[in-house]
DNA sequence: CGGTATCCCCTAAGATACTG
DNA sequence: CAGTATCTTAGGGGATACCG
């Protein structure tokens, strides 16, 4: 309804605060959404973090990232390369050797990511507590509901026997 | 049934720089990974961004977030509530009214997220350029490979006719 | 070594319908 | 209005096999 008149694909202008929020995340043709998805990616973050230390070859990455498949590592690296976050250098030797490194832009992204990780580390205790509290509350409510149901049930039974 | 976070002793200490990287992302019983996943979530970010302005009711959120299903909004809100990022207030009126708001912790998260969004906005042009360059290069290489293949093919044909 | 191609499974998200 | 329950499907991701 309200967003019907916004046809220019790719353009992601921010004007009013309320409008801006709508734009930078709703439309997936918006760059922001795509980059966020890359960051959100299960493996991308880890690759970026590892490459921040030093450049690594394909197999080195594979060994360091426990549980990643060849396919996913290759995919992830190609995505990162395409976005200009990681550079790929082929050494025409035998056996072949390919080095991956963070580009300057990739490095700045890692800086930004760090602040996010820092946030999670600062708040992980609070979050764990919140979860525990929530689970306890939900559990309590469920039990209360069950008790109530049991009570209604017994009342119904009583009524039935009374009628008999 | 939802995913129960069974508390395996996922101690997530950081010692050496190299070790630390491995830990905070490889093991999914590690808190950081889970919180990152929440942040990365397609809808969570948008909900947080919208609630930062003011508290909203369920339907208000649904209307503002174009394309979200009832189910996903409910799920997202439950998760955020469980993590202590969003508060849920039920007004026992008729019709029922439920308000969602950012908790203080949720607000600080939004601050952190902002820096990420800022980064994407700063670099979206560079990324678009990198993608265009990559695609062009790949396209060029593919065409070159095809030309080469065609050439080899014609040479093979020539050799065949020479033998005849 | 450093990939790509193929198959296949399983989950997460969408659509739909129903309830307090 | 504010959800939950149920069904169904697309695609993310693993395993495997094969090329340069």
Q: What is the quaternary state of this protein? A: homodimer
Share of β-strand residues of chain A? 5-15%
Query: Strands across the major sheet of chain A, in which order?
Result: 1-3-2
Please estimate the helix content of chain A: 55-70%
Count of alpha/pi helices of chain A: 6
Keywords (chains A, B): DNA-binding, Transcription, Transcription regulation
Organism (chains A, B): Actinomadura livida
InterPro entries (chains A, B): HTH_HxlR, WH-like_DNA-bd_sf, WH_DNA-bd_sf
GO molecular function (chains A, B): DNA binding
Word description of this protein:
2 copies of one chain form a homodimer. Chain A has 164 residues and is mainly alpha-helical. The first copy, chain A, has one domain (31-163): Winged helix-like DNA-binding domain superfamily/Winged helix DNA-binding domain (Arc Repressor Mutant, subunit A, Orthogonal Bundle). Chain A has 6 helices and 3 strands. Chain A has a 3-stranded antiparallel β-sheet with strand order 1-3-2. In chain A, helix 3 packs antiparallel against helix 6 (104-163). The longest helix of chain A has 60 residues, at 104-163. Chain A starts with 16 loop residues before the first helix and ends with a helix. The interface between A and B is large, with 52 and 52 residues. Chain B binds a DNA duplex (20 and 20 nucleotides) through residues 42, 57-59, 69-75, 90, 94-98.
